[in-house]
Amino acid sequence: MSFDNAYEGLTAEHDDARWAYGSGFHDEMSTVDREIPSTVDRADLAAYALMLGDDALILSQRTAEWCSNGPELEEDVALANIALDLLGQARLLLTRAGEVEGAGRDEDRLAYFRDEIDFRNVRLVEQDNGDFAQTIARLLLFSSARLALFVRLSASADPVLAAVAAKGVKELAYHRDHAAQWTVRLGDGTEESHRRMQAGLDRVWPYLEELFTAHPVEQRLAAAGVAVDPGELRAEVDAVLDQVLTAATLTRPDVAPMATVSGRAGRDGVHSRPMGYLLAELQHIARSQPDAVW
Amino acid sequence: MTAMAPSTVDYARQVAEQVLDPELPVLTLAELGVLRAVELAGDTVLVTITPTYSGCPALDEMRADLRKGLREAGFAHVEVRTVLSPAWTTDWISEDGRRKLTEHGIAPPRRIGPRLAGPVPLRLDPPSAVVPCPRCGSRDTVELSRFSSTACKALRSCSACAEPFEHVKEI
């Protein structure tokens, strides 16, 4: 059978399965092997899934702020597409985190009802968008590191992380190419675009180091074959960034890494000033109407 | 369609294979390659699908449309499951699906084969591969944006007939 109108099902079906928030929707991975390898510490695995999920969730939220504000329609659409991919990755990872934690928290609970100190994303992703060049600079750093990470994570001993990563590799390759091509276009463009692309890179570069800094959870899980030690990514990511910067006639910023609080940073819930504002916007509807469904 | 006596898993499969993709309604879910399995467990039809992209918003519509189609065909119990692995690839779009896309003005994806091991190579230039215009057949087309109205498509323009068109990008 078939429908004359593909969206007929919208009105014909009255269950809530298709709505994300407030639906109890959590069967995304129902046929992925969800067994947790016996050698893996559940708390660590939940924490790790949360780190990777929060990185994607927060950058998705930031990137989506460009929606209707892009410098041109095509770019508006492109950034919305990238935000959507990241949101998809976030949903799968937060669902996994909640499932492994075993305390009954689903993706919505984790996204909307945690406070700032409980978020585990790196600080790079929460920074304000700045201008378009700065947004592109951030995407270049993030997608380069995450692509290198997900290629390795595709072989994780955790079947869910492996599946999410293998899928994400295809998406992140497009994100990185997009950011890299814009970096070259702006860097090797006019005097003004060059200046702003360099300024954007200078602004986000201090947060690069955090992407390569292993948290104890990552170190333990890497030893168990579940996670990737992000320090291993540095050489590969550096080579990619150098290739882009050279083509773009830009200079690798010579800046000190952003300070930590006694070694603690985003992965420990130590965030920067923009994070609270971001969460206020992300969470306020869900928190104002905690029982809402639609 | 009137409900027939559902007897076999083959019939359930036939019904499921006819359900259209919500975002590319010229294709069925089978032609798109997202329908991975249709099985019968007792009196429940188990349908397995896979998302095209992690955040594909059409996934929940697919579930709803599959349940509706199968129920209307007489299957009272339907369960739609999602599987992430192996990840969907545009190589799974069938020959019929590719032909239908072209007929509807959407350039089908090229075949890319399995991903090679190791780091993903960086692409600083737009892909050099030729994507013929689905309207006039000209090979003189350019990529305007790698992202289009849905996550799975890129936007191109034909230099011969001057029409823009969409291209299901390879993943």
From TrEMBL, chain A:
<dbReference type="InterPro" id="IPR009078">
    <property type="entry name" value="Ferritin-like_SF"/>
</dbReference>
<dbReference type="InterPro" id="IPR007814">
    <property type="entry name" value="PaaA_PaaC"/>
</dbReference>
<dbReference type="InterPro" id="IPR012347">
    <property type="entry name" value="Ferritin-like"/>
</dbReference>
<dbReference type="InterPro" id="IPR052703">
    <property type="entry name" value="Aromatic_CoA_ox/epox"/>
</dbReference>
<protein>
    <submittedName>
        <fullName>Ring-1,2-phenylacetyl-CoA epoxidase subunit PaaC</fullName>
        <ecNumber>1.14.13.149</ecNumber>
    </submittedName>
</protein>
<dbReference type="GO" id="GO:0010124">
    <property type="term" value="P:phenylacetate catabolic process"/>
</dbReference>
<dbReference type="Pfam" id="PF05138">
    <property type="entry name" value="PaaA_PaaC"/>
</dbReference>
<dbReference type="GO" id="GO:0097266">
    <property type="term" value="F:phenylacetyl-CoA 1,2-epoxidase activity"/>
</dbReference>
<dbReference type="InterPro" id="IPR011882">
    <property type="entry name" value="PaaC"/>
</dbReference>
<keyword id="KW-0560">Oxidoreductase</keyword>
<dbReference type="GO" id="GO:0005829">
    <property type="term" value="C:cytosol"/>
</dbReference>
UniProtKB/TrEMBL annotation, chain B:
<feature type="domain" description="PaaD zinc beta ribbon">
    <location>
        <begin position="125"/>
        <end position="169"/>
    </location>
</feature>
<dbReference type="Pfam" id="PF01883">
    <property type="entry name" value="FeS_assembly_P"/>
</dbReference>
<dbReference type="InterPro" id="IPR011883">
    <property type="entry name" value="PaaD-like"/>
</dbReference>
<feature type="domain" description="MIP18 family-like">
    <location>
        <begin position="17"/>
        <end position="72"/>
    </location>
</feature>
<dbReference type="InterPro" id="IPR056572">
    <property type="entry name" value="Zn_ribbon_PaaD"/>
</dbReference>
<dbReference type="Pfam" id="PF23451">
    <property type="entry name" value="Zn_ribbon_PaaD"/>
</dbReference>
<dbReference type="InterPro" id="IPR052339">
    <property type="entry name" value="Fe-S_Maturation_MIP18"/>
</dbReference>
<dbReference type="InterPro" id="IPR002744">
    <property type="entry name" value="MIP18-like"/>
</dbReference>
<dbReference type="InterPro" id="IPR034904">
    <property type="entry name" value="FSCA_dom_sf"/>
</dbReference>
<protein>
    <submittedName>
        <fullName>Ring-1,2-phenylacetyl-CoA epoxidase subunit PaaD</fullName>
    </submittedName>
</protein>
